[in-house]
Amino acid sequence: MSSFNRSVSFKQRAANIGSPRFSRKTWVSRLFRALIAIGSLVSFLLAIGCGYVYVLPNLTHAFHDHDEFGFSNSNGSTDSCDVFDGNWVLDYSYPLYNASECPFVEQGFNCLLNGREDEDYLKWRWKPKNCDIPRVNVQRVLEALRNKRVVFVGDSMSRTQWESLICLLMTGVEDKESVYEVNGNMITKQIRFLGVRFSSFNFTIEFYRSVFLVQHNWAPKNVPKRVRSTLKLDKLDDISKEWIDSDVLIFNSGQWWVPGKLFGTGCYFQVGKSVKLGMSIATAFRIVLQTWASWVDSKINPEKTRVFFRTFEPSHWRNLTLRECNVTKLPLSEAEGKDFSPFSETVFEVVNNMIVPVTVVHITPMSAFRSDAHVGTWSDRPSLSDCSHWCLPGLPDIWNEIVILYLLGNYEAASE
Ligand SMILES: *[C@@H]1O[C@H](CO)[C@@H](O)[C@H](O)[C@H]1NC(C)=O
Ligand SMILES: *[C@@H]1O[C@H](CO)[C@@H](O)[C@H](O)[C@H]1NC(C)=O
Ligand SMILES: *[C@@H]1O[C@H](CO)[C@@H](O)[C@H](O)[C@H]1NC(C)=O
Ligand SMILES: *[C@@H]1O[C@H](CO)[C@@H](O)[C@H](O)[C@H]1NC(C)=O
Ligand SMILES: *[C@@H]1O[C@H](CO)[C@@H](O)[C@H](O)[C@H]1NC(C)=O
Q1: Separation of 201 CA from ligand 3 center, angstroms?
Q2: What is the per-residue pLDDT for 40?
């Protein structure tokens, strides 16, 4: 029994199951498909702005009631164990799934399939200093998610994590055909919505592409010519209404907040009617997070929805301008400063002032060491090296292990 068990609070979260979401599904999904079609067209048209043209190179098992599954409200981080403070240890029982047997890993992330030959990068487990992350009990997670809706919102890093969670859980599903994308869509880089349904368990794991979390529109009239589009920093993305009625909501944002994807494409910031030409990216990011925080505080029912914000994913470029990088065979021994990100710091600052509890999944420091975990040239575009995105299986699986730890508490650890 690790010290972790004793210190985690096992107060049961009132799992509020049984809203009639699926009965509304048919008309909602028809309307929604139409919205997506319009949305896709708009994002296509906006392709010239905000870097759309520039795709990155690429419940606790109730201790007192073992028959009922619900979410735990453990935050994983207690006085005696901070799950984010630890190190990588070799564990040959990893990886957790075979990407070639999971239809939801996009080819660009399946490094083994794309020719990567070294395999050590698949074998690392995250070991917090004062506790262990229990091995994921897939059957228990599947049961805990029954009748629920898990929603990922963010950029391609969020999509990777979405793919990872689906594949992880599919290892526990015998009839693979019973798991399918609700609209029969293929995974593509620009797609605004993907929803994978685990029909035997009546839950969905959804992904909404919203790289900046806020609305992106054509520039208003009477602005300088270089302004082609604007991000409305005070208006959460218009697909945000789809995120409300979920049970688990996992956000991220960060990779698109760079000059090249913003000003470089004529995309500037707007607050109200006013275009803010001189505003820095750091300031804009903070305003967006405050917009996001007010939205969460006013729209999300914390009794129903568990909210997470996953922090910034470090990249490992040798020279980003030249798109040069070397994927290493082993993790770095030093974080080389990549364990700090101003974006992650802003997430903490904003979340600390919110009413609805939000769990910050602070993957920045642990991921800083993983220069071995990127897709490199083993993506769907082998001519370009990519030290931003990650192989699957791989590092995003570990992010999900931590999310699962927060959702389920550490029942397994307690029984070890
Ligand atoms: C986690 O929960 C414990 C006790 O429930 C609390 O003392 C601690 O501050 C929380 N940590 C975070 C990061 O929220
Ligand atoms: C993954 O599955 C594929 C197809 O079933 C198989 O060919 C391959 O050897 C497996 N890879 C590993 C690493 O087990
Ligand atoms: C599936 O889940 C929804 C809630 O998400 C619930 O309303 C519905 O009754 C469930 N269906 C079945 C067959 O359990
Ligand atoms: C990357 O390469 C460019 C072009 O050679 C050079 O100007 C720049 O200084 C390099 N950046 C770094 C961080 O080395
Ligand atoms: C890193 O990659 C570059 C090409 O991108 C190559 O020239 C160089 O030798 C590599 N360095 C190491 C240490 O492998």
Answers
A1: 9
A2: 61
Atom 2 of ligand 5 has which residue's CA nearest to it? 326
Pocket probe for ligand 4: among 317, 319, 320, 326, the residue whose CB has the most ligand atoms within 8 Å is 319
Residue of 341, 386, 388, 397 marked catalytic: 386
For the question of residue 297 being annotated catalytic, the response is: no
Catalytic residue among 216, 316, 362, 389: 389
- pTM of the shown model: 0.83
In angstroms, what CA-CA distances link 297 with 4, 343, 348?
30, 21, 16
Residues near ligand 3 with C-beta < 6 Å? Answer: 18-22, 147, 202
Cβ contacts of residue 27 below 8 Å, gap of 6+?
none
Beta-strand ranges (E) seen in 113-240 are 124-128, 149-154, 179-181, 193-198, 203-209, 214-218, 229-236
Domain that holds residue 182: 3-415
Distance in angstroms (rounded) separating the CA atoms of residues 402 and 363: 9
**How many angstroms separate the CA atoms of 203 and 384, rounded?**
37
Does 100 sit in the ligand 2 pocket, CB within 6 Å? yes
The dihedral sign for the CA sequence 190, 347, 386, 249: negative
Sign for the pseudo-dihedral over CA of 359, 350, 284, 273: positive
**Total tally of structural domains belonging to the chain:** 1
3-state secondary structure of 347: helix
AA identity, residue 392: L
Determine the distance separating the centroid of ligand 1 and the alpha carbon of 397, expressed in angstroms.
Answer: 24
Ligand 4 center from residue 170 Cα (angstroms): 43
Examine the residue annotation and report whether 397 is marked as an active-site residue of this protein: no
Q: Hunting for tokens 């409305």 — which residue is that? A: 232
Instruction: Name the residue among 38, 32, 88, 80 with its Cα closest to residue 371.
Output: 88
Q: How many CB atoms lie within 10 A of CB 58?
A: 21
Confidence of residue 4 (pLDDT cuts 50, 70, 90): very low
CA distance 94 to 394: 9
Q: Is 156 a catalytic residue?
A: yes
- Of 384 and 410, the structure prediction assigns the larger pLDDT to 384
Average pLDDT over residues 242-258: 97
- Cα separation of 74 and 64, whole Å? 16
* CA gap 151, 210 in Å, rounded: 12
Q: Which atom of ligand 2 is nearest to the CA of 95?
A: 13
